[in-house]
Amino acid sequence: xxTATLLLLLLCYIxxxxxxxxxxxxxxxIAYGAVNDGTGDNVKAFSAAWKDACQYGGRGRVVIPxxxxxxxxxxxxxYCKGTMSFIINGSLRxxxxxxxxxxxxxxxxxxxxxxxxxGGGYLDGQGHVAWRYNDCSxxxxxxxxxxxxxxxxxxxxxxxxxxxIDSKNAHFNIFACHNITxxxxxxxAPAESPxxxxxxxxxxxxxxxxxxxxxxxxxxxxxxSGSRGVEIANVHCGPGHGISIGSLGRGHSEQPVTGxxxxxxxxxxxxxxxxxxxxxxxxxxxASNIIFQDINxxxxxxxxLIDQVYCPSGNCLEAQSNVEIxxxxxxxxxGTSSSEVAVKLQCSRTRPCRDVKxxxxxxxxxxxxxxxxxxxxxxxxxxxxxxxPSGCL
Length: 393
Hints:
Elements: H1 3-15, E1 25-28, H2 43-55, E2 60-64, E3 68-70, E4 74-77, E5 84-88, E6 91-93, E7 105-110, E8 115-118, E9 122-124, E10 147-152, E11 155-165, E12 172-175, E13 178-188, E14 199-202, E15 205-215, E16 221-223, E17 228-237, E18 243-248, E19 257-268, E20 272-279, E21 285-300, E22 302-310, E23 323-337, E24 341-346, E25 353-364, E26 373-377, E27 379-388
Parallel strand pairs: 1-2, 2-5, 3-6, 4-7, 5-8, 6-9, 7-10, 8-11, 9-11, 10-12, 11-13, 12-14, 13-15, 14-16, 15-17, 16-18, 17-19, 18-20, 19-21, 20-22, 21-23, 22-24, 23-25, 24-26, 25-27
GO biological process, one term: cell wall organization
EC number: 3.2.1.67
InterPro entries: Glyco_hydro_28 (IPR000743), PbH1 (IPR006626), Pectin_lyas_fold (IPR012334), Pectin_lyase_fold/virulence (IPR011050)
């Protein structure tokens, strides 16, 4: 056996991909009985096509042709014998039946490796029929409405050229995943739609969000416990609540958040720009090695924000956060603030923020209260380069 053959077999073993020379094969959901007139429920047809493609052993391609497909809650599971593509050329439409709201997932993928989701089609969550049932702002034990697309335990995969509209809850949820690239997606929901985060990430590593537009009613991107090695670049955010790390520290045994980079991004009329928020009081965890760089703010209410006194109930009195925030760089951030305080670093008295750097900040405010201001509380670090408003570190 030649050295080249041995190396090929070793590579096949490492990546767990079949090296049998099987051609790509299309599994068209129409051939499995799916109808594309917006009626019925196509879960059985989609599931059957996925199952056969997953067992094929080569490059299985589940294809959803043009048309409108009514689709109930469905989870596509692995492990598959080969690489998988889920190609959405049509529009998938979520149910409006109230009974459907009891699940947290509309479309899910679990335990899949080397998956591509693409096609230029739509995920229509039909959230307008469900948002009125969201009482999470007043009910801490509220039931979560379904997320449009959920990835759990997915590795070495990508989502691109896809559009999600009017999600009932978050558009995309990424949990316990590794090496995922999301690019050229557009996520849309009205500014007043509750909890419609664009992309929510937790317990995941090496996640990239690139070249996308997110217009929603909550965070454009949110990162919580265990988010590591996340890169966000060339994203247009707004309306929405900005890009947030947190909230952190609410539960026991939260994992650190580290290695987050947000760059070359534009925020338009968002409630916040780049934000780190932690509960007060909170459990112990940390957020570190964070870079926010080359960012344009256009009429953003809180362009630069660290909030370690996050307490929506308003009954926290003098409670302090136990989340440690360190090694945070805000660099080359410019534009306009729609509030007087353009830079606010509100850190914990018991665990002050450390090694925070403000470099070349140019954020102006034109309003009845005069010029933009910076406020720093319990924040330790340095300012350099241009500082408008005047650096408070």
